[in-house]
Amino acid sequence: MTAQPAVAWIGDAATGNLKLIDQTVLPVEYRELNLTQVETVWEAIKSLRVRGAPAIGVAAAYGVVVGTQSAVRGTSSEFVARLNHVLDYLATSRPTAVNLFWALDRMRRTATAAAELSPIDLLNRLLEEACAIEQEDREMCAAIGRHGLPLLRDCSGVLTHCNTGGLATAGDGTALAVIFAAARLNPSLQVYADETRPLLQGARLTAWELMQRQVPVKLICDSMAGWVMKEQRVQAVIVGADRIAANGDSANKIGTYSLSVLAKAHNIPFYVAAPSSTFDLTIDNGDQIPIEQRASSEITNAFGRQTAPEGCDTYNPAFDVAPAGNITALITEKGVIQPVTKSQIAAVLNS
Ligand code: MRU
Fold first, then answer.
1. Which residue in 11, 88, 178, 339 is deepest, having the highest Cβ count within 10 Å?
2. Is 48 in the pocket of ligand 1 (CB under 6 A)?
3. How many structural domains does the chain have?
4. Are residues 215 and 247 in the same domain?
5. What average pLDDT does this structure show over 113-138?
6. 67 and 85 fall within a common domain
7. What local confidence, expressed as pLDDT, does residue 2 receive?
8. Residue-wise pLDDT tens digits, 198-228
9. Structural domain ending residue among the three candidates 139, 154, 176
10. Are residues 299 and 152 in the same domain?
11. Confidence grade of residue 303 (pLDDT, cut at 50, 70, 90)
12. For the domain that residue 102 is a member of, what is the CATH number?
């Protein structure tokens, strides 16, 4: 976890609010946001003020509480109508990270199971469930760190992509939790962090988190990863995921597919660390994962200024899919899944 949690609830169910670290202004500025309207929660998810699959799920769960507070003075059916509207609305914020839909589904099922409660009691129950989602995510991060540690034990260098740490989860992170655990054992472990174009989560957030925790980090441009492998600077690549299909195909930040191909070409293990809430066992393979397309301005106006000719056309997929065949192991809170096959995934997740 960062010094302050990336996502938290402040106060009681009826009058409290969602508190976030605004990740769009890091590392230059540290700003906290108190969100009291579901529209601002939606905007915070859409614009990546809160981001990273598990953190999006936690924020959405609290967003449900924020969005239904105004309905507690109405009838039960008015409360349920508002709840359904809020659930559907939050589901439109981002398409790829399945944790969003997993958390909203949990909130929907909680409300259905407690349908006999009065609106205020139901609101309290919804907050309890959102807090449970946050707490469970924290515990899953710790378990992922423990299970992944042996895989990095003998590494002197490791490469990671995007941000998968305390900012992306309720705890220490997924891939970064494993890195933090390995760095506690081997303080000279050298992390290579891809800057992660176009929104620079690696440069702005991962480098910041690693430096805060005194873990040696070298920031590299995304295009340098292959050369870093060729020079034998890293003995493993470890990334997070936004959605993992039943066969192990794993969607993650754009650039992950290329890293998986490069790792295979250099005979370097490629690990994906994610909690069970990131698995979508309703889809057979990665072809069925919706890939978020984002605004062209993220590419044409990099680094706070225009960086492409006026009117230049772009293609800006925010995620890609690393095929299961390129993944050495999946690291979950339930254990390490290796080999990455449909049956092994089912066996470990059901254990
Ligand atoms: O667009 P983002 O910043 O939300 O993308 C985040 C990632 O791709 C992370 O690697 C993933 O969500 C795992 S976070 C533990």
1. 178
2. yes
3. 2
4. yes
5. 97
6. yes
7. 72
8. 999 999 999 999 999 999 999 999 999 999 9
9. 139
10. yes
11. confident
12. 1.20.120.420
Q: Is residue 198 reached through a cis peptide bond, with omega within 30 degrees of 0 on the bond before it?
A: yes
In a domain, 1, yes or no: no
Query: Is 192 domain-assigned?
Result: yes
Say how many Å lie between the CA of residue 95 and the centre of ligand 1: 12
pTM: predicted TM-score of the whole model, two decimal places: 0.97
99 lines ligand 1 (CB under 6 A): no
CATH number, position 222? 3.40.50.10470
Share in percent of the chain as helix, strand, coil (round to 5): 45, 15, 40
Q: Cβ of 85: how many Cβ atoms within 10 Å?
A: 14
Measured in Å, residue 238 CA sits from the centre of ligand 1 at 13
Residue 2 covered by a domain: no
280 φ, ψ (degrees, to nearest 5): -120, 90
Is residue 240 within 6 Å of ligand 1 at its C-beta? yes
Q: Report the distance separating Cα 60 and Cα 107, nearest Å.
A: 9
Q: In what order do the strands lie in the sheet with 250-253?
A: 279-280, 243-245, 250-253, 319-322
Domain boundary pick from 139, 162, 181: 139
Q: Which domain does 131 fall in, by range? A: 7-139
250 touches ligand 1 (CB under 6 Å): no
- For residue 304, what pLDDT is reported? 84
Q: Distance (Å, rounded) from C-alpha 225 to C-alpha 159?
A: 8
Residue 178 inside a domain? The answer is yes
8 Å CB contact between 157 and 233: yes
Please say whether the beta carbons of 13 and 7 come within 8 A. Answer: no
Q: Kindly state the DSSP code that residue 322 receives in the 8-state scheme.
A: E
